[in-house]
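re: ur question from yesterday

yeah so i grabbed the chain u mentioned. its 441 aa long if i counted rite. heres the sequnce exactly as i have it in my notes:
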Amino acid sequence: MPDIDNKKYGLPKLKKYPMPDAAHVRSAIKFFNYVTPANEEELAKAIIARMEEYGISPDSMNIGDENRFKKYVQKTYLKHHGILGQKWGVRRYQNPDGTLTKAGKERYSGNAIPPNTKFLKDYSGPAYFISSNDSLSELNPRVPDNYFTKNGYEDNATPRISFAPSIDKCLAGLSQNVEGNTYSVYKPIDISKHKVFKPNPKAVPDSLITDELWICESVKLEKVGSIKVTGNRGQAGKKFSYGDKTAELYDDWTYEMKEIRHSDLYLQHHGIKGQKWGVRRYQNPDGSLTEAGKKRQYKQDYKSTEKAFKKAMKSGDKNTSNRSEVGAKIQSKIIANKDVKEYDDSYQYVNDLMVNAFKEQFGVDISKLPNAKLTLNEEYSKWLHIKHDKAKTAATKIAKNHIDEYASATLKDIGVKETKAGHDYMVKYLNDNDFDTSWYR
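ran it thru and got these structure tokens back, copy pasting raw so excuse formatting
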């Protein structure tokens, strides 16, 4: 790991538990029980400081009861991001129970639009909220209490409830390693009764990734199901900026459906209304491809390789280094083959025999005449043809054994990433163009 600031270590003196980013903070929490009791409190304080810095909400971490770090989190944080000792009700627009004050009602009544948001008139699309709490029935707007709002990177004046248009986006918005976690999925009972706002990056830095939606009033919820996060598809994180800094969010989580209460859910990756949970045409719940998905991918790879190869041939196939190497290997094996050597020796024997006979009879060395041709008698001709056929069969077999290697070399030469479909295309092209029979005439 590159050199990092001592302050970024959980235990600076020991240079252990580095936490230069959110991913390392999650790892430090995961392996917290490995720290010695003498260093436990110091590490806990460092993790909590980094959680605040990177905007990590403990409520979404699902820290197990056996993890010793949990007691330190409980001392610092209250559920739903409240801080121990914080006095609720000192906000201008919100009462302690989450309802709006008179000033709040005035601010969000009528056509008032929160700063840096767009009012989505008559919004009737999907809006989801996920939580580890499986018995929510209503949510009240509040200002998130995290690193971004504390440091002015995110709107810290507008009480709101944050929804997302898909489960994928909900998971991305947690900004955590959520693998293995189970969440209940909720939606507003009737979203048409609420004003929906879409914040821009000035209001919420990662809003272009999460497609976050705001409702700035109390919302009654309907539970539509539950999910368990099974892993991820290994895609690169998506970067966003806050102030003069950058961070990453991951929206490639895969999950399985644990409970279904409503058919009006949009599945991960553009599910369709009424579609049964987990029944995707091209993708399984764990992110792997279905049989239909594999066939579809195969066709796409086949066509893209064909297109790239034809383009390379049209523009001039200049790089042949990999094919030349394989070709030299094939040629050397053909030359060394027993049947090939026997034919070459037989042909040379007959040729020498006829040249000498012609020289003795007519006194002319026909081998030195460039246009001279000798006609074999029928017996010699049949004998040599048999030898030649055996040699050609042997050479063809050698070439055929290397056709896969030659196909891979071709793809390397034209700069195309090899896939099974792409490889199959090249093998077919070589076979159609007499690859195995062209090495020995």
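noticed a couple things. The longest strand covers residues 219-232. also The two ends are 59 Å apart (CA to CA).
anyway ttyl
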